[in-house]
Amino acid sequence: MSGGIIESISSVYKRISHAAMRAGRDPSAVKLVAVTKTVSAASVREAVDAGVRLLGESRVQEARDKVSALAGDLPETVSWHMIGRLQSNKARLAVRLFDMIQSVDSLDIARRLDRYASEAGKVQRVLVQVKLGGGEARAGVSPERLSALLEGVGSLNNIVVEGLMTIPPLLETPEDARPYFRRLREIRDEAEAEGFRLPELSMGMSGDFEVAVEEGATIVRVGTAVFGRRNYG
Ligand SMILES: *Cc1c(COP(=O)(O)O)cnc(C)c1O
Hints:
Layout: H1 2-22, E1 31-35, H2 41-49, E2 54-57, H3 60-69, E3 79-82, H4 91-97, E4 100-104, H5 107-120, E5 124-129, H6 146-154, E6 159-165, H7 174-193, E7 200-202, H8 209-214, E8 219-222, H9 224-227
Parallel strand pairs: 1-2, 1-8, 2-3, 3-4, 4-5, 5-6, 6-7
Helix pairs in contact: 4-5
The structure holds pyridoxal-5'-phosphate.
Pyridoxal-5'-phosphate binds at residues 35, 37, 58, 83-84, 167, 205-207, 221-225.
């Protein structure tokens, strides 16, 4: 698998660049978060050796194990992003582990993160996850409630919202995801018109990241296209 990861990463970067250029965007405006859930610490290292600096995990405990397995082994410039649903009893540990928490979707979880960040003497960077279809069970704040949530989080001193994240419902083709990505960008533009500052748009995964980049993604979260198919054991 050795050359595998390096080649896959270089191919993903190329595809990001081409998609950006098709849309008249600067390719360097798009950041790759390599999603390392179920991926071994050794493979994470390979990805970092190949130049990846942002790593995404969806479970706090798995991230903790990987971070300690790799302690002292990764450059200081590596940062971890939480991309999965955050349970409130894991919030304190999440603040300790993650530079960015992409999945904030309630004032309750934001207040907890703010409290733990204050205790830890840090300002926690977050994205607000927006739910665009996919049913009630799906994580994320509804577009109608976004302003109120941003307003509430704005009053907290130890947490800063840098943008929005979304996961579209399961779709047949990458093109089917386009309206969702476009919608997130429009929602961001509307919120910025209200005075919120939301430079980051985290959208697009292995199956559809090029479409997301064409629609304005600044962060893509890519697992399978970097590491191969996940084995959940
Ligand atoms: C697993 C996961 C990804 C990566 O999915 P791939 O299809 O393997 O690229 C992206 N975002 C979230 C929130 C995930 O849970």
